[in-house]
Amino acid sequence: MKFSVVIPVYNRTDTLRTAIESVLCQTFKDYEIIVVDDGSDLSVAKCLKPYMSLINYIRHDKNLGVSAARNTGIRAAKGEYIAFLDSDDVWLPTKLQKHSDIFQKGWMFCFSDEYWFKTDRFVNQTEKHAKYGGQIFSQILDMCRISPSSASMHRNIFLTCGFFDSNMRVCEDYDLWLRIAAKHHIHFIQEKLIIRRAVTDDQLSKNIMFIESIRLVSLARLVRCKKLSLSQKRAAMTEINRKYSIVQSGIKRF
Fold it and tell me: How far is residue 187's CA from residue 109's CA, in Å, rounded to a whole number?
């Protein structure tokens, strides 16, 4: 099996069906679908009933967070490559085929561009959300530039770079992508192959000081692990100082 598609979900039924359907409609068919129910109420299992023969359904007894849910899916995966899909996003039909083509060339990690859909309309990405390929460690220190739903990777990456940090409820993707980018070249497919949907207004993501404080802790931990090259460490320290200033200025306003 080539791909294991990991879909974490917690109490979301309004978009879960379309997420799964977008996998079933892929032109590339060598995959399995793993849905990890992170301690939802019974509505999720009920929603999934028509798909049970088509998916591997795993349920946590209690809510452990998206990091733990993704990690459960990774450990259960049988595919050579792991692809993630958030339960509120959808893939376009050629997503897995285009990623498979990249892996045929020897890459270990790739991600693609995306459409953004917010509430009831498509919105344009700004220049500050630019995406990059290659040795991108220094270019993704400021923010998370890789959406989980757009990314797929060889399963061996988790052996060398670790899993999602199950203690992190936010910025867990930023944390893992930095660890991966410190070791691997990243291939960016400059084609929009997913629709990233924001169907609710996430106030947490708007709290810049809070988000930057979480990223600051993640960066400090990465520097302390002493696995970065000298140039990577210098770039990380520069970003640590910038984030520290943002957090401190926010604290002074309170």
Answer: 6
- What's phi and psi for 152, nearest 5 deg? -150, 155
Burial of 228 from C-beta contacts in 10 A (0-12 / 13-18 / 19+): buried
Q: Mean pLDDT for the chain?
A: 93
Q: Name the residue ranges covered by the structural domains of the chain.
A: 3-200, 203-254
CA distances (Å), 27 to each of 8, 89, 99, 100, 111, in order? 23, 18, 12, 11, 18
The span from the CA of 98 to the CA of 193, in Å, is 9
What's the pTM value of the predicted model, to 2 decimals?
0.93
Distance CA 208, CA 250 (A): 9
Tokens of 231: 């140039």
Q: Return the CATH class of domain 3-200.
A: alpha beta
94-135 pLDDT, tens digit per residue, is 999 999 999 999 999 999 999 999 878 888 887 888 999 999
SS percent in the chain: helix, strand, coil, step 5:
40, 20, 35
Are 161 and 179 a contacting pair, CB within 8 Å?
Answer: yes
Q: What is the pLDDT of residues 38-56, one digit of tens each?
A: 999 999 999 999 999 999 9
SS3 label, residue 240: helix
* pLDDT tens for each residue of 190-204: 999 999 998 554 444
